[in-house]
UniProtKB/TrEMBL annotation:
Active site: E145 (proton acceptor)
Similarity section: Belongs to the GDA1/CD39 NTPase family.
Membrane-spanning segments: 521-540
Molecular function GO terms recorded: ATP binding; GDP phosphatase activity; ribonucleoside triphosphate phosphatase activity; UDP phosphatase activity
Keyword Transmembrane applies: yes
Domain of life assignment: Eukaryota
Cellular component terms per the entry's GO annotation: Golgi apparatus; membrane
Highest classification ranks of the organism: Eukaryota, Fungi, Dikarya, Ascomycota, Pezizomycotina
Xref: Gene3D superfamilies: 3.30.420.40, Exopolyphosphatase. Domain 2 (3.30.420.150)
Designated name of the protein: Golgi apyrase
């Protein structure tokens, strides 16, 4: 068992797949090294920016060619992970591929085929721990993604480990979580006590475990809004512009002034200023002409919230979906992904990690979006907003900003800091210059990307949950780590972090020797050999002979009717007990000097080819006919005839040839005749000298 435990999570999104590598101390080491205060905290998860790698496009693009996803997509990501994780720790490292919105839109048969290929490729090309494909490789719902993000945010902010340092009031110590991608948006928070009791059936029960085994339990509300990510919202917006006008040119207040784009039939658009002539332009159904009026942009994107939809389970926020009432006195939210990029990539240049201020933010957006497109392009060339801001980001940011503002304040209901009075809030317009971290993230909303130099990613939340589940249960009454419906005990839909848990060190001694500690295998066999050798010496000569006969019968092997296969020899027991060439031989010895016995003995016909080295005892060429007897036939490669070697055997050979009784065939490896022409020839040798014994 190594000091460190590793985990790999592949975030398979709509635009690409990113591999995240994490590590933490194994529970035994963590308990030994922890102080009294640290024993009551969750495992410390470490990562590094070099451990992360993203490739494009997403795996959903392989929907029609699933067999290509392994070699053309996963191979690069898995190779990167194998370079960062010590080779001896790979078999104990769990691997997860969790797909989000991009895979959710694929037909179910394509989803299944892709996930099957992913799992089989990972199992066949790596030794990562992947015991249950349905748990380790899956498309996760938006609610699960939001819950993992909530865990990650509170883990990094200290809401779990140091609740006294994060007292938001009314006994509340956790933060709310907001996430927005291209296709969907999520919200996750722990309602106040009143709302939690009122909407208990709508909450998710989450269980964690600290290093010393203390259980932590939280009740969290999580929901997702499909189609409310920035890209899907943009398509709905463009579609509404087309449907509301019969004109070919459509004024768009969400585009910088004098910027014109072509619109495709599916609501996407192409930039007419593109200099890439290699890409064919699609036939436009209409043209959007930017006017650069941000206030009007806010007004036209508001209907996309669909607040007018019927609410069947009150209260609701947007799209008619139920959400318990949010108490912003205690529910303080952090926003990631587009919440961060849209508020910081351009408008917070030089003010990163500063508190979000609605009034200041809206003023900066309005200033940027009122410029004409030529002025913006000049600023891009001078890197006025940083080197990472290109024309595509500059073109899209005005719509994204309007959508973020509407979602936050008119959709979710976050107070407009800098305009609306907040109870107990010290925020003012000047607060944008204050460091949000120093303030403890106690504003109603704050966009974040990293906390303590660690990216706030839902993949981190997944690994926090998994590492917590590996901590031994302190008692039989303790409940498992995971999440499910808000009911006592273990609900039927309870999800374990790793499916059927596989301990990182097996309790099976043989598995521990041969799989987890393969370096001990040579020493194990050497020890066994020494024990057997000493045992043979202690037995003595007579007992060794008796044991030799018993083992000879036990290990005798018969492979068909071919006598050459039946007489194979030289396996381990023969070497250990001093067995000669006859070990395992089931033939009875026939005394060829006894004429009667010779008459009753008939040998099978076996033709030996001098060019066949299959049964050679040496790599130096064929030595067919080698035995312990003096009359061993030896085939000469030049003539193809057999000759007898040894003493009087040479004379017999010469006489036999002269009498037209020369060797017509060879002996097999144990000195027995392989072929005979007649019984008379065997009788003629009955008077020959006895064979000498092997030295």
């Amino acid at each position: 068992m190594g000091k460190w435990r590793y985990g790999v999570v592949l975030d398979a999104g709509s635009s690409g797949t990113r591999v995240h590598i994490y590590r933490w101390l194994n529970s035994d080491t963590a308990r030994k090294q922890a102080t009294d205060a640290q024993l009551h905290t969750l495992p410390v998860i470490e990562t590094d920016k070099k451990w992360t790698k993203k490739i494009h496009p997403g795996i959903s693009t392989f929907g029609e060619h699933p067999h290509q996803v392994g070699p053309e997509h996963l191979d690069k990501l898995l190779s990167h992970a194998l370079k960062k994780i010590p080779i001896e720790d790979v078999p104990n490292t769990p691997l997860f591929l969790l797909a989000t919105a991009g895979m959710r839109i694929l037909p179910l048969p394509q989803q299944r085929a892709l996930l099957k290929e992913v799992c089989e490729f990972a199992q066949s090309t790596t030794k990562f721990q992947l015991p249950d494909c349905q748990v380790h490789v899956q498309v996760i719902p938006g609610e699960t993604e939001g819950l993992y993000g909530w865990i990650a945010a509170n883990y990094l902010l200290g809401g779990f480990d140091r609740p006294n340092h994060h007292n938001h009031g009314k006994g509340h110590s956790t933060y709310g979580f907001l996430d927005m991608g291209g296709a969907s948006a999520q919200i996750a928070f722990a309602p106040n006590a009143t709302e939690a009791e009122k909407h208990a059936n709508d909450l998710t029960l989450l269980r964690l475990r600290t290093i010393d085994g203390t259980p932590l339990e939280y009740k969290v509300f999580v929901t997702t809004w499909l189609g409310f990510g920035v890209n899907q919202a943009r398509q709905r917006y463009v579609k509404s512009l087309i449907e509301s006008s019969t004109s070919v040119e459509l004024p768009d207040p969400c585009l910088p002034a004098d910027l014109t784009v072509d619109v495709t039939k599916d609501g996407k658009f192409l930039d007419l200023d593109s200099d890439n002539r290699d890409e064919p332009k699609l036939k436009a159904a209409a043209q959007l002409v930017g006017t650069g009026k941000f206030a009007e942009c806010l007004h036209q994107t508001y209907p996309l919230l669909e607040k007018e939809k019927e609410c069947t389970d009150s209260p609701c926020l947007i799209n008619g979906q139920h959400v318990p009432a949010i108490d912003f006195d205690v529910n303080h939210f952090v926003g990631v992904s587009e919440y961060w990029h849209t508020t910081h990539d351009i408008f917070e240049m030089g003010h990163k990690d500063k508190a979000y201020d609605f009034k200041t933010y809206q003023e900066r957006v309005d200033e940027f979006c009122s410029q004409d497109w030529k002025s913006i392009k000049k600023g891009l060339k001078k890197e006025k907003w940083g080197g990472k801001v290109d024309e595509e980001k500059a073109r899209d940011v005005c719509f994204k900003a309007s959508w973020i503002i509407n979602m936050l304040h008119d959709g979710i209901g976050v107070p407009r800091v800098g305009i609306e009075d907040l109870k107990g809030s010290k925020n003012t317009t000047k607060a944008v210059l204050d460091n949000a971290k120093a303030k403890g993230f106690l504003d109603p909303f704050q966009a974040v990307n990293k906390i303590n130099n660690v990216e706030v990613s839902w993949t981190l939340g997944k690994m926090v949950l998994y590492a917590s589940s590996e901590i031994p249960i302190p008692s039989e009454q303790a409940l498992a780590v995971g999440f499910g419906s808000n009911v006592p005990g273990i609900p039927s839909d309870f999800q374990y972090p790793g499916g059927s848990h596989i301990p990182y060190e097996s309790e099976n001694d043989w598995h521990r020797l041969f799989v987890e500690n393969p370096r001990r295998v040579p020493g194990f066999f050497i020890m066994i050999f020494i024990i057997i050798f000493i045992f043979c010496i202690v037995l003595g000569k007579e007992k060794r002979a008796s044991a030799r006969k018993s083992i000879g019968k036990l290990f005798a092997r018969k492979h068909g009717k071919d006598p050459l296969h039946r007489r194979r020899r030289g396996f381990l027991p023969s070497k250990l007990f001093g067995l000669g060439s006859s070990l395992g031989q089931t033939y009875e010895r026939v005394d060829l000097e006894d004429g009667e016995a010779a008459n009753e003995f008939e040998l099978e016909e076996t033709y030996l080819d001098s060019s066949d080295n299959e049964f050679s005892d040496s790599s130096d060429g064929s030595r067919l006919g080698r035995t312990s007897g003096w009359a061993t036939p030896q085939i000469k490669p030049e003539t193809g005839t057999a000759s007898y070697v040894g003493g009087a055997g040479n004379d017999l050979l010469n006489q036999g040839v002269g009498l037209n009784l020369g060797p017509q065939s060879a002996f097999d490896r144990n000195g027995l005749l392989s072929r005979t022409d007649s019984r008379e020839r065997i009788r003629s040798r009955a008077s020959s000298p006895k064979r000498g014994k092997r030295s």
